[in-house]
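re the bet — no i am not wrong, look at it urself. input seq straight from the record:
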Amino acid sequence: MDARTRILNRVHRALEGRPKALLPEHPHLPFPEDPIPLFLRRLAENGAEGHLLSPKEAKALLDELAQGLPGVAFGRGVPPSFREGLSELPPEEAPLGVSQALFAVAETGTVALTSADGRKAQLLPPTHLVLVERERVYPTLLQAFQDLKELPSALGLHSGPSKSADIGQVMVKGVHGPGRLIVAVLT
């Protein structure tokens, strides 16, 4: 018998007769039919802004956010209709970044962004607008993953603006990413 098998056998013997740990009830069950209101509420609780908008209204919001700015950094997945009439800047110079989310999770108020969209536009501008299709808002992360056909090589889960209290326990926004996160759920 090899060392690995001996160790695992000892662990199994030590656990015999012990009661199994009970998992706590899910804090948000049952989920509502429409996950959008929960998603928008969780976003607000996380310090982000959320809007339920038509594509035309979302473009108007983008135009309003970009007003007076020198330009915008766009993720690769952002539809061409959102780029119209706006100057494009590299993410290092842009005060506003716009990305297309792969999906969103209502239970935590989280948007999932892929590296394929371009991480710099997601992380470098101080303000970040994320577009997500209504049908891509899932009640739970598990349901979102179950619906994915293929996992991207990298996935960023963003649940609010960047914040840190590493130094002196003082909360500071925008240290490791955008200090303002706005999500437009497209109807």
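see?? The radius of gyration is 21 Å. told u. also Residues 163 and 172 are 5 Å apart (CA to CA). so pay up
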